[in-house]
Amino acid sequence: MPALILQLSRVGFLILLCLFVLAAMRVVRADLRWAGEIRTSDSGGRRRGRRDAVDPAAAVRLVPTTLVVTAGALSGTRLRLGSPGPILIGRAEDSTLVLDDDYASTRHARITQQGNQYFLEDLGSTNGTYLDRVRVTTPTAIPVGVPIRIGRTVLELRP
């Protein structure tokens, strides 16, 4: 009987080792995919050849009306801006934009409106909130068309 238990333990350990290797490969593949997306971006963080890119000088004059998810699981999702109160982003079910993203915190970020300007604030997330590849540490004004990255999700304010 002890030989059978030893053999079953070896097989169980082998199965666990295989599952660990598969999980590690999945993470590496996702990181390589993300690095490829960054590499194909231009200096403004937008993909080359995109027709709806906004000129940074014109972005100052534009008033955003929509928050658009441009990459990630919710790609194509649009939120109308202008409703009272902040837009909460995270994995929590009561967030305005609920992200199904392993790299997003429960309460990840908040977008607030002050006049015609919107501000992005990181709520102490583990992996950070990025505005055009720069980590947000204080409430920061969001220009129109500049990408906001939360985990694998990318958002933009659009007119």
From TrEMBL:
Keyword list, A-Z: Phosphoprotein
Domain of life: Bacteria
Matches recorded under InterPro entries: Cell_Proc_Reg/RNA_Proc, FHA_dom, SMAD_FHA_dom_sf
Domain FHA: 87-136
Name by which UniProt lists this protein: FHA domain-containing protein
Species for this entry: Nakamurella flava
